[in-house]
Amino acid sequence: MYSKVHSIGIIGIEGVPILVEADVSDGLPGFSMVGYLSSQVKEAQDRVRTALKNSGFRIPAKKITINLSPADIRKEGTAFDLPIAIAILSASGLITSSGLSDCVFSGELGLDGTVKPVRGALSIAIAAKKDGKTTCYLPRENRGEGSVTDGIQIVGLNTLKELTDYLNGGKKLPEFLADHKVAGSAGKNYDVDFSDIGGQPFLRRATEVAVAGMHNIMYIGPAGTGKTMFASRIPTIMPSLSWEEIMEISKIYSVCGLLSGENPVMDIRPFRSPHHTITSQALAGGGRIPKPGEITLASGGVLFLDEFSEFQKPTIEILRQPLEEGEITISRTHGSYLFPAKFLLAAAMNPCPCGFYPDRTRCRCSESQVNKYLGRISKPILDRIDICAESSPVSYEELRQGKKGESSASIRNRIEQARSMQLERFRGTGIRFNSFMKKPDLERFCILNKKETSFLKQIYESMGLSVRGYEKILKLARTIADLESSEKITKVHLAEAAGLRSREGRFWGGIYG
């Protein structure tokens, strides 16, 4: 007999419908599987056969053929164990249910017939809904992830026997309905706040502008001047996540196995801070079966690279495409995988090996040492960083005063107002933030009067900007105007935008100028 069961495979972070076909016929007894399978999927025949036996099923000694379709998509992982078992039981006449065509099955089988958790349950549930299915059967541990998807019934399983009894009209399985209406929680669940930091007004303003328009920022200055403190507090002033953003980020973490039953979704902005010894593959993602790296895990949040100049140069250069396009493509023999990478880059570094350059009263580094140290950051990477914020040592008087700064909640209110202007401005364009504007968008949304045009020309020529640098100035000025609720970009906005980039020339002008 022939039967078919629906399942979902994971390609990158997206679910792809997979049809599991089973044919149980007369002939020399055997168990064969086809359909462009990885070794993990091929091993399913031993797991499934033993799980069926230990669940009390006697499979006739016949020829069993399993096909996973479409054959041009490589099947990875252990999540096909459950649908293969159901397809065999259906083809053997041991499951009498006629409603299998409206269901999706996914789960790994233990040898005793238990259904074990899999990665990517949220992507599986979303893909099942898009494919028009009404019910998705998942391992009990994954039911929380799957249930955040509207419009599809999620059923959690403990054992294979439990499922087959239900499909044959036995005891009803408990449906798990999660309270998935998660409110955005910006500023919550953090044990840090901007009010903890006193002084450093320039760094405060630079950070606020960076978050308001999702502009990449570099903090540069001596050790102990607050660079890491500012970066670690960026998520506390980022706006609440929309439900679409929550789902997008949660899919990434689901595929990586970083969600749990207690936390089935990511409802706060990610903050990733990899050590400078990280490999290129761990940062970008990849492997024989490509998985998301740190830049994808930071999507929708912050990627903080402390000691930026200590990262291996090839690792830093990997950031070029993601910073420009908001996504990264990993190509392997089996195909290309596209991962999102829309994050805010916050980098921190010292200006020289000792950390005190350009203060020559304290810095003892030679010019060649300084140039070599700063030269670890290439010009193309610098061009992709919108803001260069120099931190200065805190005076003894400021330290002793202990005066608290403005709170994260207060700063976030201004940023949310600026973001609302951007959402209205870019409605229907697919753009979310000012930093994502391309040249045609700049011509449309950053219109300057004659006086401002002349002033921008002076900035362009005096700073020796590249075309990308010129566009960065315009984007920053647009964000600064949004923070002041101004539709018009003025000379004041352009001047501040230029000031937020001028520190770059102060340190790297002698190298790349």
TrEMBL record:
Matching entries from Pfam families are given as: ChlI, Mg_chelatase, Mg_chelatase_C
Residue stretches making up the Magnesium chelatase ChlI-like catalytic domain: 193-398
Q: Which residues form the Mg chelatase-related protein C-terminal domain?
A: 405-501
SUPFAM superfamilies, per this entry? P-loop containing nucleoside triphosphate hydrolases, Ribosomal protein S5 domain 2-like
What NCBIfam families does the record point to?
YifB family Mg chelatase-like AAA ATPase (TIGR00368)
* Protein's name according to its UniProt entry: YifB family Mg chelatase-like AAA ATPase
- Per the UniProt record, the source organism is Clostridium boliviensis
